[in-house]
Design goal:
This protein is an alpha/beta fold. It has one domain: Aldolase class I (TIM Barrel). It has a ten-stranded mixed sheet. A hairpin with a 4-residue loop joins strand 8 and strand 9. Helix 7 packs parallel to helix 13. The longest helix has 18 residues. The radius of gyration is 20 Å and the shape is globular.
Length: 387
């Protein structure tokens, strides 16, 4: 694979080098899921018929990343749909070849059972994250493929984790359906003794479209038929306010003794120490996140909608990952020159470091780049004062 990356090296988005830490996302089931969350970006990709990632794909990926530091995220769709036997084999492959790698599971929680908990307990390096946006009304975008509410099933899965003493994190997508309800959500998390982290994610979902190849419920299709401004999407200003309110409540109630709160911790750490765990605020962004799919292709960060997919190996069986992440392959640059230029002279550039490239690309298409940048300025200033 010849050619040169269009962008070359950027001070805001570094290419990977051997020895760098790579975040590997394995899409165990592709887009296949027992829920049809309206805002799900994975179900908007054009997927072929391959449904479950094979052991051979996992082995090839791990082999190609042997000279890099590694963390692994088991994702979907719903990753538990692969079933216990296959999931266990994938875990064994990762732990045997990369005993140094942290492994994270992100699940919708509806399938967690006694048997799954027993498997989790046998794999101490595996951490579990459960998606739950709220309670009934606040969680109503997370419906199943028959348009039924999923909240009770998620709570039952959480109860199974607690019964077995398994710590876990909660992932909350902040949407129009639950904006302004974050304090109640944190109160709920605080009384669950095994919740050790809460992560707030923004639903910036305007300007997106459905895939023609992935089945969706009638409810989801109706929402997209209404136009580009989707009813659950929030503004950058709304998310900034939600994060500030959440942090004030978390700090005021002393919940910091119970669980971490992101992205508040990311903003605080970046402001205080100059570094944090979030790739949004570091130069190691898109080229340091690899997403592997069941059809033997991979891309950079899975949040880059429309991102180019590349075969895992070439016609001679030689791996392609290093060529892509080290910038030797001709492909579209994630952080374009236009976006980089917008950062010149910015007062929070040293902290923000260009922010999330995927979100900025979508914002630019909609003419909302300034609103994104203002959100970051507001949040960094707020947390500087809080610190």
């Amino acid at each position: 694979m010849g050619g040169q990356l269009h962008m070359g090296q950027s001070a805001l988005c570094h290419r990977a080098r051997s020895g760098d830490h790579i975040n590997l996302i394995l899409k165990l089931t592709g887009a296949t899921c027992n829920l049809d969350c309206g805002y799900c970006f994975e179900k908007r990709r054009d997927y072929p018929s391959h449904r479950i990632i094979s052991e051979e794909v996992v082995s090839s990926t791990l082999s190609q990343l042997s000279t890099y530091g590694l963390s692994v995220e088991l994702h979907g769709g719903e990753p538990l749909l692969v079933g216990l036997p296959h999931f266990s084999k994938v875990l064994d492959l990762i732990t045997s070849s990369r005993p140094d790698a942290a492994i994270r599971l992100q699940t919708n929680g509806t399938l967690i059972s006694e048997e799954w908990c027993e498997l989790f307990l046998c794999n101490q390096r595996l951490s579990v994250g459960v998606s739950l946006d709220g309670f009934q009304a606040g969680n109503q975008l997370r419906y199943d493929n028959r348009e039924r509410d999923s909240t009770l099933a998620v709570l039952e899965g959480m109860s199974q984790l607690e019964k077995h003493g398994i710590d876990f994190g909660l992932i909350r997508v902040c949407s129009k359906d639950n904006i302004g309800q974050v304090t109640g959500y944190l109160d709920f998390a605080a009384v669950r003794k095994n919740v050790k982290a809460v992560r707030l994610l923004p639903c910036f979902d305007d300007g997106t479209a459905l895939s023609a190849n992935v089945p969706r419920t009638a409810r989801t299709r109706r929402a997209f038929a209404a136009g580009h401004d989707l009813p659950w999407s929030i503004s950058f200003d709304e998310f900034a306010s939600e994060v500030m309110v959440a942090y004030d409540h978390w700090r005021g109630r002393g919940y910091f003794d119970h669980f971490l709160l992101d992205p508040a911790i990311d903003y605080l750490k970046k402001g205080l120490t100059g570094t944090c765990a979030s790739c949004h605020f570091e130069a190691r962004k898109c080229f340091h996140t690899i997403t592997v799919y069941p059809d033997r292709t991979f891309s950079l960060c899975d949040e880059l909608d429309g991102g180019e997919r590349v075969p895992l190996t070439n016609a001679d069986g030689v791996g392609n990952i290093a060529d892509v992440i080290e910038g030797h392959t001709k492909m579209e640059a994630p952080l374009t020159a236009f976006l980089s230029q917008q950062c010149e002279g910015c007062e929070v550039r040293a902290h923000c470091h260009g922010g999330c490239v995927a979100i900025r690309r979508r914002a630019a298409r909609l003419g909302r780049s300034e609103a994104y940048c203002q959100m970051q300025k507001d949040l960094f200033h707020y947390f500087a004062l809080s610190a």
